[in-house]
Design a protein that fits this description.
The complex is a heterodimer of chains A (127) and B (265).
Chain A lengths: L1 H12 L11 H5 L10 H10 L3 H5 L11 H5 L6 H13 L22 H11 L2
Helix pairs in contact in A: 1-6, 3-6
Chain B lengths: L1 E6 L9 H13 L2 E4 L22 H13 L3 E3 L2 H16 L1 H11 L11 E3 H9 L1 H7 L8 E4 L9 H4 L9 H8 L3 E3 L17 H17 L4 E4 L2 H10 L6 E3 H8 L3 H4 L2
Parallel strand pairs in B: 1-2, 1-3, 3-4, 5-6, 5-7, 7-8
Helix pairs in contact in B: 1-11, 2-3, 5-6, 6-8, 9-10
The complex binds iron/sulfur cluster (SF4) (2 copies).
Chain lengths: 127, 265
């Protein structure tokens, strides 16, 4: 099971986690650092170790803003955000794994909220 | 008049009509016609980087292919559409497996593999029209106004796919501000995230991010902030708690060109 998930995450992200030198630069630049239990460099390391179930259950998956700061600023071109995305997809693709469903949207709206926020959140939080 | 294919995206049809209207009237005054392809669809707001995601990439490919068939470059204004479309174009031109799956699905008369040139509207101003030409057409310069350009994350990153400007020391919006007669303000948070869609489920985090951006701009003496993104505008206005005004760059452009009143009639 573990091995399957690891392979799936590696394939889906296209990331070579072995390139990481654990400098922590990705986490230092991450705007969601304080809100995350596991930080971008830990995502990379834990996927390498196959320790993915903890990540799949973590709120950290939904704290990533997809700002690509970690992607552009990683000195080894590891692209940690792609790992976060692959693990999040593995989680929301599970039966009942949707974080957000369309019936939850009306309560989140206000007069100024752009459509862009809704379509993006649905793309990130649901399958 | 030169014609470009133009992709407004869903938000410019609804909550961000100003971003769209001012972009169109200004382009026309600068000698560029913007023409929408028939039946475009929403880009989805965010690019899915995962290699095993195909369906979420189709809408952007359809738009890119429409521009290819019309034989013209594609122009976008919204930072998010620009990001999704450029990342899709970058990946489909390099990832053969993804390109094959997408093309299998779409069954186009000719496979699409990244042929279309994509410009953000700011790139159109810089690379096609030229900021010097633009400044010659300015009738209402923003004299003495200190303007903070807010890039956020989507305009510049990932820089190898977007290839718009130096992601850490960008100049395109500052050059735009100079062209319309203002004084650009450089501040630390100009290319950090406003919180984006997190406002949907974690207001506190959106407030924290957007107030950091606005405080950073205010500390450097900005009179106003400009953006190309409807979601940035929302976060900076509604979640930051700051009184500093925030405008779309296209509204500033139309005003500088003396087109703002006319386009509101
Ligand atoms: S910045 Fe890159 S090399 Fe450094 S810890 Fe993060 S992923 Fe690893
Ligand atoms: S893309 Fe996600 S993980 Fe990477 S820096 Fe931005 S918020 Fe952090």
């Amino acid at each position: 099971m573990n091995k399957n998930i690891k392979e799936q995450v590696l394939r889906s992200s296209g990331v070579n986690v072995l390139k990481c030198m654990r400098c922590g630069k990705c986490s230092a630049t991450c705007p969601s650092y304080d809100e995350m239990e596991y930080h971008p460099h830990q995502f990379v390391y834990m996927v390498e170790k196959g320790d993915i179930e903890k990540l799949m259950k973590s709120e950290s998956l939904y704290k990533c803003l997809t700002c690509f700061a970690c992607v552009d600023r990683c000195p080894r071109n590891v692209e940690p955000a792609k790992v976060v995305e692959a693990v999040r997809l593995a989680a929301v693709r599970q039966q009942g794994g949707n974080r957000l469903t369309p019936d939850m949207i009306p309560d989140m709206l206000d007069d100024d909220l752009p459509q862009q926020a809704i379509v993006t959140a649905l793309r990130k939080y649901a399958k | 008049m030169e014609t470009f294919t133009y992709y407004p995206g869903c938000t410019l049809r609804t909550k961000a009509k100003d971003l769209d209207t001012y972009a169109r009237v200004s382009a026309e005054a600068l000698g560029i016609a913007l023409e929408e392809p028939a039946d475009w669809q929403c880009c989805g707001g965010a690019y899915t980087t995962a290699k095993d995601e195909i369906a979420t990439k189709l809408s952007a490919v359809r738009t890119l292919n429409a521009a290819k068939e019309l034989g013209r470059p594609l122009v976008t204004v919204c930072s998010a559409c620009h990001n999704v479309i450029k990342q899709t174009n970058y990946d489909i031109s390099r990832d053969e497996d993804m390109a094959a799956k997408v093309n299998n699905y779409l069954r186009l008369p000719e496979a699409y593999t990244g042929e279309t040139t994509v410009y953000h509207y700011l790139e159109l101003l810089r690379d096609v029209i030229g900021f010097d030409k633009l400044s010659e057409k300015v009738v209402n310069p923003f004299k003495g106004k200190k303007i903070a350009a807010y890039y956020g994350c989507l305009l510049l990153r990932p820089s190898k796919a977007l290839a718009m400007d130096d992601p850490e020391n960008p100049t395109i919006m500052e050059d735009f501000i100079r062209a319309i007669g203002g004084i650009p303000v450089i501040y630390a948070q100009r290319n950090e995230c406003c919180g984006g869609y997190i406002t949907m489920e974690d207001k506190a985090q959106a407030q924290k991010r957007s107030s950091a951006v606005m405080e950073s701009a205010a500390d450097q003496g900005a009179d106003m902030v400009i953006t190309a993104c409807p979601l940035c505008l929302y976060n900076l206005k509604k979640n930051s708690g700051s009184e500093l005004p925030v405008f779309y760059f296209t509204e500033m452009l139309a005003e500088a060109l003396g087109l703002k009143e006319a386009s509101n009639e």
